[in-house]
Specification:
- The chain is α/β, with parallel strands linked by helices and 386 residues long.
- It folds into 3 domains: 2-261, Purple Acid Phosphatase, chain A, domain 2; 266-326, no CATH class; 333-386, no CATH class.
- The chain is 29% helix and 24% strand.
- It is built from 11 helices and 19 strands.
- The protein has helices at 21-37, 57-71, 87-90, 94-97, 134-141, 148-163, 275-280, 305-310, 341-353, 359-371, 376-385; strands at residues 2-6, 14-15, 18-19, 42-46, 76-80, 102-105, 115-119, 122-128, 169-175, 177-178, 197-198, 208-212, 218-221, 224-226, 243-250, 253-261, 268-273, 291-296, 316-321.
- The strands form 5 sheets. The protein has a 6-stranded mixed beta sheet. Strands 7-8-9-12-14-13 form a 6-stranded mixed beta sheet, covered by helices on one side.
- α1 runs parallel beside α2 (57-71), α5 packs across α6 (148-163) and α9 (341-353) packs across α10.
- The longest helix has 17 residues, at 21-37.
Length: 386
């Protein structure tokens, strides 16, 4: 059986206010093309189909299109809900949709009930474990501890109890933070009381564990893998290679997994230096069409830095400032009693920039202070009293 493992689509998500739906649609095109080209038998989507519990109508439309196209392919599809999804909304009409060969599993109570598929070697039992909120399952499942480990261990106990009743190879989908994996900046924290890790050993006795939640592809064991998200959703993922795992199950279980790279709509780049260096360094030419995160190291914060950077790097999205000789310690900490709002604002500008405000900037700040004060003379009187 050939299995294509993907997860964390996050349909409807933006990237620093840049809409991603067009790029997500291109990924769906790629996914369907891979299914047909590689003669995939089963597509598994390990959670976070959507980016939010109440997704935008355009995201729902794209999900509908993706599932309709996959249903029209020779492959079967098993989908579970992630921590970003609404289990109830994603699972709506799932019993009807089963008839189309698309199996959406969002109910924790069904964790031990597999989707049964056949290939030339026999039966494959696919167990779709949705994201398990420890608070939601602790009482009904009688868990001794309030943790992700306790919840997933109980889910896997149910999986093993079912496996003992049938002669079948097993595939498990789970949405969790499994020990040994490395997170990025774009995943939502799922820790409970500071504990979010699940031991890799929980999946020791299955033929393949298709994991979701973390956005970088990772191999924790040959048969335990994260596919990662199909697109980068933070600059911490600038070095990631995005895509999905193409997994081969043979007569005796897991045989191999090859990574199928997804299209890159726009590369990510993180650049660092003074503004003048970044604008003239020829080695940075390759980043001119990338989404850029820039860190400026100028001793004095440059004026109109974003506009100037975008003159060379038009897709600059984020600017940070780490001036040489960090001046953050110079920010006034004394109580501002007896000092005018205007004087405090001027101190702030100087502390952050490393140089005093110009005459024009000081006048603009005075106008802003006056506009925020019911009586413009109050600030002047306080200043004179000081």
């Amino acid at each position: 059986m050939r299995i294509l493992h993907t997860s964390d689509w996050h349909l409807g998500r933006s990237f620093h206010r840049e809409g991603m739906l067009t790029h997500q649609a291109a990924y769906v095109d790629h996914l369907v093309e891979v299914v047909e080209r590689e003669r995939v038998d089963l597509v598994v989507v390990a959670g976070d189909v959507y980016d939010r519990a109440l997704p935008h109508v355009d995201a729902v439309r794209l999900a509908d299109e993706a599932l309709a196209r996959l249903a029209a392919s020779p492959a079967k599809v098993v989908i579970t809900s992630g921590n970003h999804d609404s289990a109830q909304r994603l699972g709506f009409s799932s019993r009807l949709i089963d008839a189309a060969g698309v199996f959406i599993r969002t109910d924790a109570a069904g964790a031990g009930t597999p989707v049964l598929l056949d290939d030339r070697h026999g039966t494959v039992a696919v167990y779709g474990i949705p994201y398990l909120d420890p608070d939601a399952v602790r009482e009904p499942w009688g868990l001794a501890a309030r943790s992700h480990e306790a919840a997933l261990t109980e889910a896997m106990r149910r999986v093993h109890a079912d496996r003992a009743t049938r002669d079948a190879r097993s595939v498990v989908l789970a949405h969790a933070f499994v020990a040994g994996a490395q997170p990025s900046d774009s995943e939502r924290d799922i820790s409970v009381g500071g504990v979010s890790l699940v031991p890799t050993g929980v999946f020791a006795d299955v033929d393949y564990a298709a994991l979701g939640h973390l956005h970088g592809r990772q191999t924790l064991a040959d048969h335990v893998r994260y596919s990662g998200s199909p697109l980068a959703y933070s600059f911490s993922e600038a070095g990631h290679v995005k895509g999905s795992w193409l997994v081969e199950l043979g007569a005796d279980g897991f045989e191999r997994a090859d990574f199928v790279e997804a299209p890159v709509p726009r590369r990510l780049a993180r650049i660092r230096g003074t503004l003048d260096d970044l604008l003239h360094d020829l080695t940075l030419t390759e980043h001119e069409d990338a989404w850029v995160q820039a860190t400026l190291t100028d001793a004095v914060r440059p004026l109109q830095a974003m506009d100037r950077l975008r003159s060379r790097f038009p897709h600059t999205l984020v600017i940070g400032f780490e001036p040489v000789g960090d001046r953050r310690a110079a920010v006034p900490t004394a109580a501002p009693h007896g000092r005018s709002d205007h004087a405090i604002a001027l101190d702030f500008v100087e502390a952050m920039r490393g140089a005093p405000a110009t005459r024009a900037e000081a006048a603009l700040l005075q106008t802003a202070v006056d506009a925020c004060c019911e009586d413009p003379d109050v600030d002047v009187l306080v200043s004179e009293a000081g």
